[in-house]
């Protein structure tokens, strides 16, 4: 019958469902009980750790007070009764301290907080032997029975040394193990448990329950689960297992005590933890039959609540982790911005100095060249002095080039460069620069993409890095040149493909302070005359101006790795590097011309005018852009205007624009100190870089006056593009 059949089903369900529910609830409750027990154990070991730290820190303070008291005194003064009284005063208020002692290098006690037999020596004590062998700082001994106090204790000791570092005795305090066990008994749960204070080598200093032993120190076997766990996780942890000779399985937690080689451990019997579970089983069994439906409903609601709680906690943890990561990224970005602003400020200052210095060098080099022409050929001494001055000025010009490389004020000619071919082409130069004591190894992958960079400047950067590596290795070691491809998706570099070209040396390395400052201009750790402090600055500037970055990694005595991250170029864009062009013949038919020279610096104006007059040109001088316009409006017959770029009131570029507007066919040549060459490169005006020689100046003028346009200025071809819609 259907009704009977349904009744049987319900009866069976009323038996089976409570049984299944009872079993599931029992297993779940067992897991919770063990978990709660482990939490309680961890909480107890935290309390024990805090207590132990305070006790040992107090002991350190006592030792410090004793050190201060006997500092600079001889043993006769230390043996005075006042010292022992002082030690007794230190001991009295401290329940954990059994006694305080001061002994000499032979182990004889000279002062103590308790009465003692003066014939007794402590030279055989473990802590005395350890301090005599070496200055180990604060040393904690194994427990021992005190000869003066007849009480079981362990020592916290410090070494006493003579001014020249020789062993001169020991200051120690004897700590009471009972103080720890009494505290553990009062502060830990009542369930059957084990509480330990032990050294890292397994020697037990205090334990609960106390075995009451007075003989040799008790030690945990090296193969015990506790010591194996400490070896794996030395700062602290928890586990379930057997670790004491009684063979009882316990839930343990342990933690390292501050900086001391000590551990506190606390374990509760697993059977004791499960006693609560057994009680719960009896309760569940009593109510399962009568309230099966309610139990099922409550269990389902409880399970849903736990799941919701876990999900909420997971969301909260994810949100917190996201917030922490966001904070880390923001702090890192702020640090990068601060560093970039600092380097930008230094770069602007450096570029300004280089600009002014180039103006001075223009006047110096020009005057020296004119003087060299007028010097009698037979005056060897004057010729030598002139050449020295000329070489010094040229070295100054080279220095400004490095300054401008750092400040990113130089004009680059980036192209797709085959790094493997570039390094191979430099092999002889690198070998001669590094010397026979440096072994060079290259590691390049097959199919390496070309880099978008100025090849000439990259060669100079690699040479600077190689020379720095050689100096760091003292001329002896190994240098590895390597390359790889990387893809950047975020950060301070633009997303995209990059080619990393780097060097690793086996030199002395750098500490964090040096590493943080090594790219600053003029910062060097080399001796006087051995470096300008501009090599890495130039490499840094090249990387930044090439839309890449310089990455340096170094540690003292572990060498240095320098990596240039450069944008990758398409292989199809790579062209072979052209051979050096033969010198061009000077254009014919230029002859004597009238050139207006515009410069606000009287020295540069006079020097430039003298070079042009010496070359056979007529010169009209103007000390400002406005004066130049007034002269031109007055009808002066000028065939070319040579103007400085940076001038008060009106710049050279603004002057050139005004001249193009009023006198479209009058050529203008800009003389620049390089700091603004990158801005002027797209202006369409021919440039001549300061400091320039008479030959470079003459060639630039002839290039402007004798088409086709396109001139070589200081080794750099700068095309001349006329103003739109006009012919110069």
UniProtKB/TrEMBL annotation:
Keywords: Coiled coil, Membrane, Phosphoprotein, Transmembrane, Transmembrane helix
Catalytic activity from the UniProt record: ATP + protein L-histidine = ADP + protein N-phospho-L-histidine
SMART domains linked: HATPase_c, HisKA, REC
Domain Histidine kinase per the UniProt entry, residue ranges: 352-570
Enzyme Commission code(s) on record: 2.7.13.3
GO MF annotations in UniProt: phosphorelay sensor kinase activity
Record has ATP-binding as a keyword: no
Annotated positions of the 4-aspartylphosphate modification: 644
SUPFAM superfamilies to which the protein is assigned, alphabetical: ATPase domain of HSP90 chaperone/DNA topoisomerase II/histidine kinase, CheY-like, Homodimeric domain of signal transducing histidine kinase
ATP-binding in keyword set: no
Pfam families: HATPase_c, HisKA, Response_reg
Domain Response regulatory: 594-705
Highest rank taxon of the organism: Bacteria
InterPro entries per record: CheY-like_superfamily, HATPase_C_sf, HATPase_dom, His_kinase_dom, HisK_dim/P_dom, HisK_dim/P_sf, Sig_transdc_His_kin-like_C, Sig_transdc_resp-reg_receiver
TM stretches of this protein: 6-27, 283-303
Coiled-coil regions listed in the entry: 306-343
Protein name: histidine kinase
Originating species: Muricoccus nepalensis
